[in-house]
Structure formats: C-alpha cells, structure tokens
Specification:
The complex is a heterodimer of chains A (337) and B (380).
Chain A (H helix, E strand, L loop, with lengths): L1 H19 L5 H8 L2 E5 L8 E2 L5 E2 L1 H14 L5 E5 L5 H6 L5 E7 L2 H6 L2 E3 L4 E10 L13 E5 L4 H12 L4 E5 L3 H10 L4 E5 H8 L8 E3 L6 E9 L3 H19 L7 H7 L3 H7 L5 H4 L6 H9 L2 H8 L26
Helix pairs in contact in A: 3-9, 3-13
Chain B lengths: L4 H33 L30 H34 L4 H16 L2 H15 L7 E3 L3 E4 L2 E4 L1 E2 L3 H31 L6 H18 L6 E2 L2 E3 L2 E3 L2 E3 L1 H28 L2 H9 L4 H31 L3 H4 L4 H12 L2 H30 L5
The chains are: A alpha/beta (337), B alpha+beta (380).
Chain lengths: 337, 380
C-alpha cells in the first residue's frame, strides 16, 4: 500500500519534470517540430487571408513560407495561426507562434515593451479613412462628430484620437476586436467612417456589395510601416528572418525572380547575383544555413516584386512608396555580401 | 515509524503541501525569468501613463489624455452599470416567467416553457450577436430615425431621448423623491407594527403612491417649475443634444436579461413548487385571493429556497457581462484588452481583471447571504 502511494507520488513528480527543462532556441524548436508556426490575420485580403479551400494567401503569409523554405527547406511546412488585434502580441510572447507576420506597425513602444523585435518593413503604409459616398464627405477635416469604427489595441486607435484632438474635432468610437464584425458594422451603417491602414481599407472595400459606394479619403494621417516580428533574445533566428526579408527585396533589385533563379544559379557570372544565389561567398554558412538558403525562398514565393504583384496588386494599390529605391520608393535592402 | 497512521497522515500532508508550494514557486519563478529574458516590463507603473485611446461611453468624463488607471475605472463603472441593470431586469422578467409557467392558463404556461427551453439552450454569445444584429440591421439609419414626437428617436445608432436640462427645480425634485421613498418605507413599517399590535390595517398603497408623486411635484413647483428640455437635434452625422443609449448597451442589457431570466424563472418555479400544497390550500380556506395567496403565503416561504441559486445566477450575469467585448461595449474586459495590447503587460492587466471580478462577486455573494440569513427559518 505504501509502495503504491509512493509510486504514485513519484509518477506525479515525473510528469512535471519536462516543464523544468530550460527552453531551447526558436530554431531548435522549429526544426524539432518540423514546421514554422506563423501568426497571421484572420482575413485581411492581400496580407493574410484564407481562401475557400483554407489555403492562406497574402504577402505576410508568403513571407512566412519564405522563412520556412529558408529554415526547413520546404515552403509548405508552415502552420498558420489566425490572431485578432487583441491577442496577436500575447500569442507571440507566450511562444505559441514563432513569428508574427500580421500587418503590424513598427513603433518604438512595441520594440521596447513587448519582448519582441521587428525584423524590418515589408510594406510602407499610412492610416486613412473610408466613408460612404452618400455622406458627401470629401476630406478628413469634415469628420467632426462622426461615429468611427476602429479595431482596439492598434496604433490606428491611438492615431485616430491624436488626429481628432489636434484638429479639435470630436468623434464616437465603435470598438470591436474582430475584423469581420467591424467591417459588418461599417457596411450596415452603424458607423460613418472606417479607419485602418489604407491597404486594409482597400481590402475591406473589396468585400462590399457595391465598391463604388465607398470612398477612401485622400488624407494619410500617419506613417504605418508594417513588418514581421519575432521574440527578443533569439539573435540567430532574428538574423536569419531579417536577411530573408532583405534578400527578397535585393533579389528584385538585381532581377532574380522565381522564373529565372535556377538558370541564374547555374550560369550567372555577375558577383551580386552570385552572392544572392549562393554560388560565391559564404553568407549562407555564416547565417548557420547552407548556400541555397535564398534560392529556396525565391523559388517558393518569388522576389519582393513578385510577392507584391501577386498579393497587393489585386487590391489596387500602386507600388508608390513600396517601389525599389532606384525607382523612387523606400525599399532599400542592405547588400548581401 | 511509517507504520503509525498518524505519522503517515502528517507525512503525506506535508509532502502535498511542499509539492503545491513548490509548483507555485516554480510557476512564478519561470514567469519572471521569461519576462526578464524577453525584456517585457513588469509592474503596475503603466497605470499612470496616458491612455491615448477614446472610450465610446462612460458615466464619468474620460479623455484620451487621461491615464490607463482612469480608463480601467471607466471600464469598471460600465461593468457595474450593466450588471446592476441586468440583475434588476433579469429578476423582474425571470420571476414573471417563473410564475407564468405555473399558471393554470394553458397557453401562458406553454409559452413560458417554450421561452425558457429555447433561451437556456442557445449560447449567450450567439444571442448577443442576434440582438446586436437586430438593432443595427433592422432599425433605420440615423437620417431616417423612427421619431416619437420630438422627444424620442430610435435608429440603428441607438435610442436618443430628450432629457430635462439641469435646473435647481429638478435636483430638488430628485431629493424630494428620495425623501418620499424613505417616508413611504417608514409608513409601511409603522403600519405593519400597528397591525401586529392591534390588528387594525392602515392603508399603505395609496398613501405611499401619493407621497411618491406629490412630494417631488411639490418640490419641482417650489423650484420654479423648470420646463427647459434638452432636445436631440439631427445635425451632421448624428443627433446632438439629449441623452442616448447605444445599441451595444441595449443589446447587451436585453441579451443578458433575457438569458439570465430564463434560468431565474426555473429557480423561482422550483422555489414555489417547494412550498407544501397544504399551505396554498390553507390560504384558500382562509379566503385569500390568488394574488394575495402568492404574495403573503407562498413567496415568503419560497424565498428561502430561491435565494441561494439566485445568488449564483447574479454572479453568472456579472461574469457574462464580459462578453461585451464581442459586441463593442466598453466594459472592464474590453478596456483591459486594449491596454494589454498597447503596453504589452498582459499579466498585470489580467491580474487586475481577476481581482476586480473577484471583489464584485464576493460583494454580491455577501449581500445575498445576508438576505438569505434573514429569510431563514428560525428553529429552536
């Protein structure tokens, strides 16, 4: 009898033993699991949204596929975890996802207080307003007294109240944490204005029964550099993800695309391209990977230009500030050398 | 040594205590270690920082330049407001339906049964979405609001109603009403004492109503009979002036009340059925009318059985009010959610939430237990 009880106690203690072991690095966890856990939006067209078969599309989703191709060798080994505006950071902080690729604005307080770091900017955006054309509003300065639909816990919410305070106007917020609910509230007329990043406004307008009824006002009231985040402290992993992003941008600069990457790998003699595709230099090895790292990513999702064309093109936003620096835009990747 | 029962008992309890304390210490240490490696801030200092976000409705003045602490206070007041009104509404509706289910009228009884069975078995979140959808989709837009004269407007933006402008006459009337309530209760106590002593019944209902009506009116007249009313006027995007009830508030209140009323109906029905039939028959033999029988004989005895489960339902309603997050009513959980995201301090925000809900629930339990103690059978 005593032996049974002692055995039970020891078994209970043994159950807790695994949780006493120290946490390994993120790279080890990803390789051990065999998949990259990627936190995405619940359904923002152009960035991360599932289609009717449950396949995720969007520039953020594609970036996760690129990282999976780099680390695991297979772009399909991604588990997408939909998150809303309220739980996205908690999901990353707790370790439930390895990367948060979810149209998140890069701000100082987020870099400092969330226990996470931004890898870079994948899309330069700004905050805008969308109204119904029937309301006869042509500019954001005419919005005094309006009811505004906004997602909670976002930079949008803070910028909105800053803007109205500066312009000495007042507004009534309608704050719901699910994107689908808030779009519904705007379309049904519960609020006069919907505010989020201009790319999000364009994506939302696509869901309306009559797109021509809605107008995106011309003012962009803030800078919204959107980018992926990873947890702070895991520098090897952070460096790999950061250089995957820069590699995809630089690939577009030098004309390396999914259509020609294999040919360029076999034949190119130009030093910058050789470094990108891994035929010269040891950048892959210094990152802790093999020399094919960027080639895999480009083969899977294309370069930045192809990703943009495939995902953001359909929602009708021109390259604008997201063009390459040589074309007057802000996409400037530090050199891969 | 291990053969002694007492020694073994003490040893096992000591081991269990050590295990519980050990696990607790491990959890706390692990959390603090993780927080420090990821450089997430710890501590409640964020409560004095500027909030930066607007809150849709608030009983006290709130501005985005106020602190997070004040935002939490606004959330708490909103939660208390919806819980208090919900409890009142649910109790009234639930009692009516519970009694209706016992009615001898076949149709009334069946309707009440259908209501209870349907509402109890559909998840509350879905019911809240239905109520919210009904208000925002079925009601007309603001420009075409349903108007009741110039005073009340109903639209998908909620209920907008005229309210008297603040004046000394109205505050005097308010105080007079409070005084009238106290006086009416005092009169009732005096009358019942008189009845116990001598058997003579003094009229209670009409004098009370008279007090409640005449005293405030008299005070209003004395204060100068102010008639200025704050009328809602349509201008720009929405009505200005008057007071309003937002669709979120209405949907949450109606949803919570109807849902909890179904449960309270069953509790009340159980309480009434628990009173022995002999009591009702004796009351009939004494010549009491059915209404009097219910009020004077059945309900006081049924209350003993009703109060404890009723406490649970009140606690459920208070905690269910946190579903306000799903439809956009700015209660405590919604404010805490936003704060968690803006500051990254999830653990502190959740700790505040838990502490507040625990305090509210304990307060409700204490009050109901005190009331239950008063209705308990005093036995030798």
């Amino acid at each position: 009898m005593i032996r049974i009880r002692l055995a039970a106690l020891l078994a209970a203690a043994a159950l807790f033993a695994p949780s006493l072991a120290p946490a390994g690095t993120t790279l080890d966890a990803i390789r051990h699991r065999g998949a990259l856990r990627c936190g995405v939006n619940t359904g923002l067209v152009g960035f991360s949204a599932p289609d009717s078969q449950g396949v995720w599309h969007g520039i953020d989703a594609d970036f996760c596929r690129a990282v999976a191709a780099v680390i695991l060798g297979n772009a399909n080994k991604v588990q997408f975890v939909p998150t809303n505006a309220s739980n996205r950071f908690t999901v990353l902080q707790s370790g439930e996802v390895d990367i948060l690729s979810r149209n998140t604005t890069w701000t100082a307080s987020r870099d400092a207080t969330l226990g996470a770091v931004f890898v870079g900017t994948i899309f330069y955006d700004g905050q805008g307003f969308m109204v119904k054309k029937s309301s006869d509003v042509k500019s954001a300065t005419q919005l005094d007294g309006a009811t505004v639909c906004v997602l909670p816990g976002t930079t949008t919410e803070l910028n909105l109240s800053d803007y109205f305070r500066t312009k000495k106007m007042s507004f009534r917020p309608v704050v719901v944490s699910e994107l689908q609910q808030i779009e519904q509230a705007f379309f049904s007329g519960r609020c006069d204005v919907f505010t989020t990043d201009i790319s999000g406004l364009a994506a939302t307008r696509l869901k309306a029964t009559n797109r021509d009824d809605y107008l995106i006002l011309p003012e962009a009231i803030s800078k919204e550099p959107l980018g992926p985040l990873v947890r702070r402290g895991d520098w090897e992993y952070f460096t790999i993800v950061k250089w995957t992003l820069f590699g995809l941008i630089e690939a577009e600069e030098y004309g390396v695309a999914s259509t020609n990457v294999d040919r360029l790998k076999a034949q190119s003699r130009e030093p910058p391209i050789q470094r990108l595709v891994g035929t010269s230099g040891d950048i892959g090895k210094s990152l802790g990977l093999d020399n094919d790292w960027l080639v895999r990513a480009i083969r899977a999702v294309g370069n930045y230009g192809e990703m943009y064309q495939r995902n953001i093109g359909p929602i009708g936003i021109a390259r604008g500030v997201n063009a390459q620096w040589r074309d007057g835009g802000l996409m400037y990747a530090p050199p891969i050398r | 040594m291990f053969t002694s029962e007492r020694v073994r008992a003490i040893a096992y309890q000591a081991l269990l205590l050590a295990a519980v304390v050990g696990i607790g210490w491990l959890l706390v240490a692990n959390t603090l270690y993780n927080l420090s490696t990821r450089q997430i801030q710890v501590g409640f200092g964020f409560l004095s920082r500027e909030a930066g976000f607007e809150i849709a409705e608030s009983p006290i003045v709130f501005d985005p330049s106020n602190s997070y602490g004040r935002a939490f206070l606004v959330g708490l007041l909103n939660t208390l407001r919806i819980s208090a009104l919900g409890i009142v509404g649910a109790t009234l509706l639930g009692t009516l339906i519970g009694i209706a289910r016992l009615s001898s009228n076949w149709l009334v009884a069946r309707l009440a049964s259908a209501y209870v069975e349907f509402v109890r078995n559909v998840p509350l979140l879905l019911q809240l979405f239905v109520w919210y959808g009904l208000i925002t989709e079925l009601l007309p837009p603001v420009r075409e609001a349903i108007a009741f004269g110039d005073l009340v407007f109903l639209s998908q933006r909620g209920l907008r109603y005229a309210w008297p402008q603040a004046a000394p006459g109205w505050s005097a009337a308010g105080w007079a009403f409070a005084a009238a309530v106290v006086l009416a209760l005092a009169w009732r106590a005096l009358a019942s004492r008189r009845q116990r002593a001598t058997g003579a019944q003094w009229p209670v209902l009409w004098p009370s109503l008279g007090l409640l009506l005449l005293l405030p009116v008299g005070a209003w007249l004395a204060g100068g009979a102010p008639t200025q009313v704050d009328l809602p006027r349509l201008g720009g995007f929405d009505f200005r002036g008057g007071r309003s009830l937002s669709p979120e508030f209405i949907a949450l209140l109606v949803g919570l009340s109807t849902y909890t009323a179904a449960f309270i109906a069953e509790v009340v029905r159980g309480g009434i059925l628990s009173v022995p039939r002999g009591q009702a028959e004796a009351a009939m033999a004494l010549g009491l009318k059915p209404g009097q029988r219910l009020r004077l004989v059945t309900m006081p005895q049924a209350l003993r059985v009703i109060i404890p489960p009723l406490t649970s339902q009140y606690l459920n309603l208070t905690k269910n009010s946190s579903l306000a997050v799903a439809i956009g009513y700015p209660d405590l959980v919604a404010v805490a959610n936003t704060t968690m995201n803006q500051t990254g301090q999830a653990i502190e925000a959740i700790a505040i939430l838990m502490a507040v809900y625990l305090a509210i629930s304990l307060a409700i339990s204490l009050m109901m237990n005190w009331y239950a103690a008063r209705t308990r059978l005093v036995e030798r």
